[in-house]
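Lab notebook page, bench 4
Experiment: in silico fold of construct C2
Operator: M.H.
Input chain length: 305 residues
Purpose: comparison with the prior construct
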Amino acid sequence: MRIGLIDVDSHNFPNLCLMKLSAYHKAQGHQVMWWNPLFYFDVVYKSRVFTDTYSKDKITVTNAGTVIKGGTGYGPGPDLPDAIEHTYPDYSLYPQYSETAYGFLSRGCPRGCGFCIVGGKEGRRSRKVADLSEFWRGQREIKLMDANLLACPDHESLLLQLADSRALVDFSQGLDIRLITPDNVALLNRVRTKAVHFAWDNPNEDLTGYFQRFVEMTAIKNFRNRRVYVLTNYGSTHEQDLYRVETLRRMGFDPFVMIYEKPTAPPITRCLQQWVNNKRVFHVVENFYDFEPVKKLRNSSMETR
């Protein structure tokens, strides 16, 4: 069989599902390659992580016996069969990322946030789904994609696996700052962290005490390695967004603004994202209202009155 793969989003971030499908089919003796309209394929897999807001599916496949679409970008759907889900990924699909291992140690999250699909897709309970050896074999870096590792009952043993690997670990999707304890922070201190990500999504929930406790306990002293996602355009005012950004910076964290449904975001929120996420500007222009695009925005709004 000839198997075709389509990464609908792009090739800017490895598609873990396609890597597992590739490894599985190669083990069956099938020919696996990126889809090409010039060849006939027995099966073509189209995988899409992001929705229409961020990723458009403009690829029409007419040269295949079967076309299978999957991924959160297409909405709820069946999971990969266990035989494929627990296959070591075929990292050769993305040679530019060959020194990084990608995977999940746990799935699910108990929070059930309205803007997040994880609870509905993976369940409202965080549970262990793999050991590190399932997707890591000595790569220099590990990019962990768990939604809420600290909510998993087995998180301490999983953190120990990460620490023992001596690889640089990026907790890319964020750790739950509300679940930190002296014990799990002590384990995090043993992990070689490339970056620890947290999130402050709800402006009506005061998380300053949790962040302050983490600063007191952590061995991660460089603020660039302590990043916090700040969700905007989801029931928050500009004042609440700016408060979270400035509070995090004052406590020694590196905020990163995420805009929910960006096309609907007001111009001031887009300016906030530009200011915060351009780190050179963020640390030179300390006051948001001194940021040049904000000055232009305020001047233009005054002229239209």
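Observations: The CA atoms of residues 122 and 300 lie 46 Å apart. Residues 89-303 form a domain with the Transcription Regulator spoIIAA fold (CATH 3.30.750.210).
Next step: discuss at group meeting.
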